[in-house]
Structure formats: C-alpha cells, structure tokens
C-alpha cells in the first residue's frame, strides 16, 4: 500500500471529506463508478484525480467540487453572504483617479477621519462584516474630498481606508484585491508625504510574499520600509520600524534562517522597550513586548520547531488589552502547534476558543483550516465537535 503524505492535494482533501462523512475507502468506492484501488492511490497522491473522478466523489460525499479541488473560500463566502460585500469595495478602489464626484454629498472631514480610524479598529476587533459594509462609502467620500479640498489628514485617512481594504481582502482570501488596495495605499501615502504609512505598506507587501514563500522579495521590501524611516526618531516611527523587524523575522523564519530570525526579534525587543507598553495607538499595530513574543512563537511554528512553539505558547501571558485579532491568531497558531505535537484534544479546545474570540477571522484563516484538516486526517474517528468545526470552515 502506498504511503500517504500530508501534502495538500486533491487526494488528501478527498480523504478529509471521506473521514468527515465517516466512510471507509471501501464504502466510498462502492458509491462511485471507480475502483477501491484507484481511490486509494488518488488519496495518497500516487495517481492524479481527473475532473470526472472529482465530480463523482463530490456527488457521493455531498460536497461542492471546489472543496475537493482546493478553492475553499468560494462556497463559504456565498454561504456567509460575504461575497456581496467585496464587490462594492472593489468598485470604491477604482474611484481613485476619477476626481471629485459632483453627485456626492460627503460627511464632515472630521467625521470621516474618525470613521476611517474606527474601521481600522473594527478589523482588529475582527468585526469584518461591519467594516466591509461601511468601507466603500468612506472610501468614496474621502476620495471626493481628497480631490476637491485636499489636505494631509484627508490623504492619511484615505490611505488608512485602503489599508483596511487590504486587511479585509487578505482575511477573506481575495489576494488580487489585497494587492490593488496596497497600490492605492501607496498612492495616498505619497500625497500625504507620510513615511510611516509608506513603510507600513511595504510591511504588508512583505507579508504577502512571506505567505507565498518568496523570502528574497520580502526581505527587500522590509529593507525598503526601514529605509523610509532611517532618519525618523518619533515614537510612531520607532513602533513602525519595530513592526518591520517583526515582519522580517517572519520572512526569515519562512526561509529557515534562524540567525536572521534571532537578529530581527532582538532588534524588535529593543525597540519595544524604547516605545514602552503596547503601542496599539500607533496605526493599530499593537507593537510591543507581547507582539515580539507572539512573533517568536510564530517563527518557531514556521520553522516547524513545534515543541518550542508549544512550550512558548504555554508559558505566554497575554496582556488583557491585546487586540482581539492578535489573541485569536495566537490561539489558532497554538492549536496548530499542539496538533503537530500530537495533542489533538488540546488543539481542538484552542480552535473552539478561537472561534468564540473571533468567529469571522477564524473561519477563513488558512492556519485554522490547516489545523482542523490535520486533526481530521489523524483522527481514527471524527468527534462531533471536530466534525462541526470542519463543517463550519467548509472542509
């Protein structure tokens, strides 16, 4: 019998769905016009899954074919009615070069600037739907004002809304939209002459390359962001530079460069001491000692030092005022580490806790999906709680 790897491929997703349906391979083979032997080979990755094979299996399991082919967001976004929220954001991002809109009556500038900040806060509190519903109108009004009566605070607020658009797009899996949003952020930050916003944009770009495994580009983007603030010494700039070092540690961890990880974490730790406290007031970065510790654990996880990650997580004491998005991400990362070290029950408890903390973020987060998928693969039988979690994220 071929050995089944843990690679993320169509066969492994068929195996997940079969186990969630509490079917053996032979029972599933009886429901499709293909042999048990072929099913076994496809699940192990020894044979490719043809389109007809996938269609037959999807029909037998009662799932959408995209669940098996690796496009998990499509069905889930339709069920959550979130797809309808994304189109208005996309349209609002296209207004940037159209000038003032004579048909638009904008709210007072002070109200819009405050609202832009509230939207950034809402995303970090994981209220994604609320932020997504309001964001297009705020972008449209700020764009109108930026063209009709431009000022630095208006351009800064507009750049902030573009950042929020990026964050929402990333959390919902719209990579193409997140890239457009960052381009718009650069456009507005340049007009605001705000190096901190420009540096944050480079940080966000670097994390995107980190996610797809392109550390060299990510490192150059981090260096570019640091260069923008080389002559700055304000508390704001120190916090942003510190966050750039944390981003660099994540990029280095993905590349397996333990020395660089340590260098950047040490630099971030020194800056956290200079900034003092958790600088959540600086562009909602939540930069501080706790965030340095969270990135150290994340680096261990990225380098597959799962025992180290578990040890760090169990010793960590998070501040009570830590942003909800960071707390939920910590729980998800911790769950993955526990799953990888064989502590399935604890991992499931943490995933359930993350769901309570930030349901929208957890539901669409790839690490949560990876942890749940791993639990399903390793389970001899699927407990009801795990089955409910798997169904909830669309596995």
UniProtKB/TrEMBL annotation:
Residue ranges constituting the HTH cro/C1-type domain according to the UniProt record: 14-68
InterPro entries reported in the protein's UniProt record: Cro/C1-type_HTH (IPR001387), Lambda_DNA-bd_dom_sf (IPR010982)
Signal sequence bounds: none
Pfam families in the record: HTH_31
Single GO molecular function: DNA binding
Protein name in the entry: XRE family transcriptional regulator
Organism of provenance: Streptomyces corynorhini
Lineage, top ranks: Bacteria, Bacillati, Actinomycetota, Actinomycetes, Kitasatosporales
């Amino acid at each position: 019998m071929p050995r089944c790897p843990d690679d993320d491929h169509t066969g492994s997703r068929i195996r997940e769905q079969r186990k969630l349906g509490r079917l053996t391979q032979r029972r599933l083979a009886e429901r499709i016009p293909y042999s048990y032997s072929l099913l076994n080979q496809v699940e192990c990755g020894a044979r490719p899954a043809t389109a007809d094979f996938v269609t037959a299996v999807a029909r037998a399991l009662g799932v959408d074919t995209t669940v098996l082919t690796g496009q998990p967001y499509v069905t889930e976004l339709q069920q959550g009615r979130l797809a309808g929220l994304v189109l208005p954001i996309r349209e609002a991002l296209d207004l940037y070069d159209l000038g003032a809109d004579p048909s638009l009556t904008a709210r007072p500038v002070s109200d819009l600037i405050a609202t832009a900040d509230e939207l950034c806060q809402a995303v970090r509190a994981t209220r994604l739907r609320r932020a997504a519903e309001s964001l297009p109108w705020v972008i449209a009004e700020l764009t109108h004002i930026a063209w009709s009566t431009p000022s630095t605070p208006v351009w800064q607020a507009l750049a902030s809304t573009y950042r929020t658009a990026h964050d929402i797009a990333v959390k919902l899996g719209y990579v193409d939209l997140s890239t457009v949003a960052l381009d718009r952020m650069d456009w507005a930050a340049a007009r605001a002459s705000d190096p901190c916003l420009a540096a944050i944009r480079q940080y966000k770009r670097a994390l995107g390359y980190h996610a797809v495994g392109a550390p060299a580009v990510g490192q150059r983007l981090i260096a570019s962001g640091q260069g923008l603030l080389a002559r700055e010494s304000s508390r704001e700039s120190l916090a942003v530079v510190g966050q750039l070092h944390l981003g660099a540690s994540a990029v280095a961890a993905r590349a397996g460069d333990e020395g660089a990880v340590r260098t950047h974490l040490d630099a971030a730790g020194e800056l956290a001491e200079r900034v003092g406290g958790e600088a959540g007031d600086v562009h909602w970065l939540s930069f501080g000692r706790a965030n340095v510790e969270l990135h150290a654990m994340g680096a261990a996880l990225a380098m597959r030092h799962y025992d180290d990650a578990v040890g760090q997580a169990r010793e960590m004491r998070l501040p009570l005022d830590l942003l909800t998005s960071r707390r939920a991400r910590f729980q998800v990362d911790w769950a993955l580490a526990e799953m990888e070290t064989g502590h399935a029950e604890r991992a499931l408890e943490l995933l359930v806790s993350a769901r309570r903390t930030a349901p929208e973020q957890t539901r669409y987060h790839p690490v949560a999906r990876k942890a749940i998928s791993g639990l399903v693969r390793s389970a001899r039988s699927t407990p009801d709680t795990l089955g409910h979690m798997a169904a909830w994220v669309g596995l």
